[in-house]
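Following up on my earlier thread - several people asked me to post the actual chain instead of describing it. Fair enough. Here it is, all 703 residues.
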Amino acid sequence: MSVILFAGASALALSAAASTSTAEAAPQSDNPRWVDVITVTGRSPLSPDATAVPTELAPAVAPDAAGLAARLPGAALVDNGALSGQVQYRGLYGARVAVRLDGQAFHSGGPNLMDPPLHYAPAPLLERLEVTRGPAPVSQGPSLSAGVNAVFKHVDYAETTSPVLSADITSIVRSVDESYAVGGVAGIATDRQRFEVIASTERGEDRDTPYGTLSGTGHARDVYGMGYGLRLTANTEVTADFRRQEGGETGNPPFPMDIRYMDTSTSRLGLTTQVEAWSLSVRAEHARVDHAMNNFDQRPAPAPMRLRETLASSETVTFGFDAERALRDGVLRLGLDRADIRHDTTITNPMNADFFVTPFPDVELARTGVYAEWEGPLSAYELYAGVRLDAHDADAGEPSLGAALPMGPRMLAAAFSSADHSWDDVTVDGLLRLARPVTETLTLRGALARKSRVAGQVERYGWLPITASGGLADGNTYVGTLDLNPEVATSLEAGFDYASDRAYLRPTVYVAWVDDYIQGVPADPNTPGVADTPLEMVSAMNGDPTPLRFSNVDARLYGFDADFGLVLTPSWRLDGVLTYVRGERDDVDDDLYRITPASLLLSATYEQAVWSATVETLMVAEQDKVSAENSELETPGHVVLNAYGRWAVNDQVSLSAGVENILDQPYRDHLAGYNRNSGLGVPVGERLPGAGAGVWLRLNTRF
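Reply from S.P.:
Thanks for posting it. Predicted structure:
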């Protein structure tokens, strides 16, 4: 049975109300047993035993898709700003989670991950969100954790030769930050061609919290683009897509700077065809990110000598070839992919032309991978088996420093320049999943995986101790290590799926041992806090006398998660999502940094033919298992109450509305960053508070 989630509900609860909806089916993911799906528009992916399900129940409490993914078992939101949210899954986050946008993967434009992948998934353009349960399939590329794919709205081919117009438009307003978002897709199609345009615009003001309004937390983002598809024959299709995203001034109080602009262009060409028994696919993709951030436009400006503006860019070029055919009652997939990434970052003082420095100079990262996977029935089991081989190489250029830079940074730059910047290695990934149906209502499942990830530009090539940390947002200064080994995670998980006419339960227990886990450790462990090295002296000048160095350590993550529910009457149902994860260092007595605390989401839904209403409570435990080496602060537990509902006005129009944090409960989420904005209204160094009470509305129109 596939799993389809709307605000924590699963396939059973949704199919119980299937007869009330006429939603159109969307394409399935590879194997629905191992994929969770959140649908956020008027179309729904269907499980094999469901006909149709109600839609648009996912609460509109975040500008992009990261907040939606956080509602799944094992997942959490790393809130680094309105447009900078990351997904944490079973304690892993950042590049350790394989995130794609309509199947395309590309790198962030900045060293602080102000534009994590789901930054590029505005809610009005999102069709659905697919999250693998456990490690991602090898076909999705190297990663340690789950695979996340944000699927955008598209115009489908028509069934006739006559042109057919269609559109899917969503509008959202939210009171807690006085924000609005409106956008969607519109186009024309025949049975041979389709053409679409997409557009979205968003604006938000400062966010209200029970502690007061957070100054300098507004956001702005515009997206536009187009797509074209041509069916040359019954088995051959050519596609072309282009998307442009222009991010405006957006506050990021966990970081030392805010977004001034984040301009990104992505394009893709694809060809699919059939050659005898093989289905073949070729794709070429390009992404370019240009990013500027500063510490004076949206927060109190420091002294002129402390003014900073950072200009960063990233370019990703990828190529992929995939082949698929039926084999022994299953499906065999083979693939080859290549990714070339370039990064460059320059820190400037706009009041001093002689002040500039390149902390990550001309970084080049490349990867070439091949994979093979098979999925299908084997005796009494459902089996997925995949293996992947990747060759990696990396290099960096020479730092550039302006005349205004003092001697300390020049000494560090000289040491970096004299070192060998080139690096290469080969990683091997493997994944085995088994599912055994025991009865019509019970299926046992398990997985064994070996997954890997190599260091990014900040972790390997950061030679200057600054607060760029790849999205950690903890206020520490970091430097990289040139010879970092790849992270290698060996994981085991086991669970079962139970679903009857009245109840469902899907628990999973897991453990992952991560060799060479990359985390910041004291740069000078012998005399910490004593600035007796050039690195510590420069770091002290930048406000932190105890810099951290990205290093390989040994780690272990373990826990359990589940979703569950009970149909009480034809109109009433209960649903829940439970998450618990622990992260520990295996080499020293310490905990891993920034691990989500245990949480339980419970909801009660009353559903009628064309409307439904839900009340939910999110209970989060205290987090006192924190990293001493990273100076991580503990957080108390909290409880938040929300309510929302949906009304299907007719087949083309639906309206959703809700109230978040009904009781205006003050709380600080453990995964939120620490404040760096002195004008925010929260003391510098304190963890950022969560949103206060507010209402939201969402209107979806489609034809």
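The chain is about 5% helix and 50% strand. That should answer part of your original question.
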